[in-house]
Design brief:
The structure holds 2 protein chains of 2 kinds.
Chain A (H helix, E strand, L loop, with lengths): L2 H4 L25 H16 L5 E5 L14 E4 L5 H11 L4 E7 H7 L1 H10 L4 E6 L2 E2 L5 E2 L18 H4 L5 H6 L4 E8 L3 H19 L4 E7 L3 H4 L3 H15 L3 E4 L5 E2 L6
Parallel strand pairs in A: 1-2, 1-3, 3-4, 4-8, 7-8
Antiparallel strand pairs in A: 5-6, 7-9, 9-10
Chain B lengths: L2 E6 H11 L4 E4 L6 H15 L2 E4 L3 H12 L5 E5 L1 H17 L3 E7 L15 H6 L9 E3 L4 H18 L2 E7 H5 L1 E6 L25 E2 L6 H21 L3 E4 L6 E4 L3 H15 L4 E6 L1 E3 L3 H8 L4 E6 L5 H9 L5 E5 L8 H16 L1
Parallel strand pairs in B: 2-3, 2-4, 4-5, 5-7, 6-7, 11-12, 11-14, 14-15
Antiparallel strand pairs in B: 1-8, 6-13, 10-12
Helix pairs in contact in B: 1-2, 1-6, 3-4, 9-12, 10-11
The chains are: A alpha/beta, B alpha/beta.
Bound molecules: thiamine diphosphate and iron/sulfur cluster.
């Protein structure tokens, strides 16, 4: 069979979501940000909420998220995305509002805004990309950097005596009454990608029902700053990141269900 | 019918915000302006459904303001000096993303934690930038509680006309003192949707992006040129000032805010002694009335600039008069308010000998 006959609509498994713009992404090959963006676009399409969704982009590698998603967006200062999202949501309570933030953005400079936004139970979705490092600024330590993990500012590996311990921010915020749903996902395998998509779908659904804050952590990779190939980085993620940041729900209407290993 | 009542400056300002059809307020308590948040918490939501939220910090408040302002509605915050310092990052972003909003600074004495007493120590910060990058706020300086009221709707109008943050710069005394005020009839809430606002993208238009990030230097320069052109237009069109007995004056006092009122009293006292003193009061600190002060300089023998700081607006006064006449300074700092007597003494000391 030739190409023309294969590439027909009936054979298509995946199409480009309508909400995803036809713009080449600036992310490094194999980076989890791209997959996470696509999932957001798919979910927005499936729920038919493109016209009613407003996103907030962070400072970090996803600073240009608004170049890829065909929705109204605001770009926030470093760490402040959840405060910006709060402002939008308070004035447009019937719209869907999400922030999209990295670990430096959300769990370092923006810890205060994150905790208080969660504590107020703002009816928004926070998407938290945890790649254990500062991607955009060239691989410095993040709050989530693993013990012993090398970065440009922990060149001998993260030493807890000097730099403290990795911050499991999702575990922290899951304790807050304002948080309705907190889950940890990954996008390193097809199964994990599917589970992440489900988590995003659920979150927007809950937002529609005005249930409160939904928090989706996506344990991700940074091949460039981890200094690995995309494949190596996914393997490293599975062997190092996921054991420390186990996938599963930390808080959900059905009760907590942390799965210690690789999700499904 | 206009309503006449006795009100504290901060409360009068808050009442004016409600009556201006303000949609949202985000703030954090700090003396001497906490009454704004308190008054709004008590009255706003019940009466008009206005969003009033006590943020966890000024950093959060200004970023909530950025988000809320992005929806194209009337939004405001207020704070006092240390709080405004914390907001500077956000203000710079708001200025670049061109989001209209009202920021009120009820200034207290600094630097640092300073004092809760009135001051004008934040003139530089308000007028020259404060945050990073080349940007300007439109800055209105009230001198009466009445103006605390009247400047609120005016500030919103300017903010939307220019898509620019507007600051009301009042000192702590104006926030705290009670005066008779005439309240205006409530203005209906704004219902139009701004074409640039992020409210959800209908199929009929391109997506709206509010950002201050333009990574290409050429693009960033274009944004800067656009902003500078806007500021030029503001300078051409929006200068406001008040002159008091300036027509035949030989000495001019330049002062803004509360201090200008004290100076008026000084001028009256001076005239009783036969010294022809007038008062020139900039109402907009940006845009600054350079031309008007320059014209005055052609007619007078000297200028005494009076402020509650170490001499900040005096730099603009000197720029305006281009060295044509001597400019002297009288300032009190740290929360001390100058008296008409001490200003008069300064006039006599600096100028009177030379006049005769
Ligand atoms: C106030 C401020 N401080 C520091 C920076 C520099 N900065 C840009 S991105 C970044 C770290 C981003 O890391 P993360 O949030 O983990 O996102 P990633 O790039 O890994 O996706 C930092 C420190 C900034 N832009 N603003
Ligand atoms: S630097 Fe890291 S986080 Fe950033 S795009 Fe590249 S791989 Fe992704």
């Amino acid at each position: 069979m030739d190409e023309e006959n294969i590439c027909i609509k009936e054979n298509l498994v995946y199409e480009k979501p309508a909400t995803l713009l036809d713009t080449p992404m600036h992310y490094c090959p194999g980076c989890g940000h791209g997959v996470a963006h696509r999932l957001l676009a798919e979910v927005i399409d499936e729920l038919g909420i493109q016209e009613d969704t407003i996103g907030v982009a962070p400072v970090g590698c996803a600073v240009f998220a608004y170049n890829y998603l065909d929705i109204d967006m605001q770009e926030a200062a470093h760490g402040r995305a959840s405060a910006v999202a709060t402002g939008i949501k308070r004035l447009l309570p019937d719209k869907y509002v999400f922030s999209y933030q990295g670990d430096g953005d959300l769990a370092a400079i923006g810890t205060g805004e994150t905790i208080h936004t969660c504590n107020r139970g703002e009816n928004i979705l926070i998407v938290f990309i945890n790649n254990g490092i500062y991607g955009m600024t060239g691989g410095q330590m993040a709050p989530t950097t693993l013990v012993g993990m090398k970065s440009t500012t922990t060149p001998y590996g993260r030493d807890t005596k000097i730099m403290g311990n990795p911050l499991k921010i999702t575990d922290l915020i899951a304790q807050l009454p304002g948080v309705y749903y907190a889950t940890r996902c990954a996008v390193n395998t097809p199964n994990n990608v599917r589970r992440t998509k489900k988590a995003l779908l659920r979150s927007f659904q809950y937002q529609k029902e005005k249930k409160g804050l939904c928090f989706v952590e996506i344990v991700s990779n940074c091949p460039s700053n981890w200094k690995m190939t995309p494949l190596e980085s996914n393997k490293w993620l599975e062997e190092n990141m996921i054991p420390f940041y186990p996938l599963g729900d930390l808080k959900s209407p059905e009760g907590k269900s942390i799965k210690p290993q690789n999700g499904e | 019918m206009k309503e006449l009542t006795l009100m504290k400056g901060n409360e009068a300002l808050a009442e004016a915000a409600i009556r201006s059809g303000c949609d949202a307020y985000f703030g954090y308590p700090i003396t001497p302006q906490s009454e704004v948040l308190e008054y709004l918490s008590l009255h706003a939501a019940k009466r008009t459904g206005m969003v009033v939220l006590q943020a966890e910090s000024e950093v959060a408040a200004i970023n909530m303001l950025y988000g809320a302002g992005g929806t194209g509605k009337k939004v405001m915050t207020s704070s006092s000096s240390p709080g405004i310092s914390l907001m500077q990052e956000g203000i710079s972003y708001i200025a670049c993303a061109e989001i209209p909003c009202l920021i009120v600074n009820v200034v207290r004495g600094g630097p640092g934690l300073g004092t809760i007493q009135p001051s004008q120590g934040d003139y530089f910060q308000a007028v020259k930038g404060g945050g990073h990058g080349d940007y300007r706020l439109i800055v209105l300086a009230p001198s009466t509680v009445q103006e605390m009221v009247d400047f609120v709707p005016k500030a919103f109008d300017l903010a939307f006309r220019y898509r620019n943050p507007v600051m009301i710069l009042a000192d702590g005394a104006l926030g705290q003192m009670m005066e008779k005020v005439e309240l205006f009839e409530p203005i209906p809430r704004k219902t139009n949707i701004e074409p640039w606002a992020t409210v959800g993208k209908p199929k009929t238009r391109q997506r709206n992006i509010l950002t201050s990030l333009h990574i290409e230097p050429d693009k960033m320069e274009q944004i800067n040129i656009h902003l500078q052109n806007k500021y030029k237009k503001i300078q051409q069109n929006e200068v406001q000032y008040e002159s008091y007995k300036c027509d035949d004056a030989e000495i001019i006092l330049t002062a803004y805010g509360l201090v200008a009122r004290i100076c008026k009293k000084t001028a009256d006292m001076a005239r009783e002694k036969g010294i022809k003193v007038g008062v020139f009061r900039p109402i907009t600190l940006f845009p600054f009335p350079y031309n008007q002060i320059r014209e005055l300089a052609n007619k007078v023998k000297g200028i005494l600039d009076v402020e509650m700081n170490a001499g900040q607006m005096i730099e603009d006064v000197k720029l305006a008069i281009e060295g044509k006449v001597p400019v002297e300074f009288h300032g009190r700092m740290g929360g001390v308010v100058p008296t008409p007597d001490e200003i008069l003494l300064k006039i006599e000391e600096k100028f009177v000998g030379e006049l005769v």
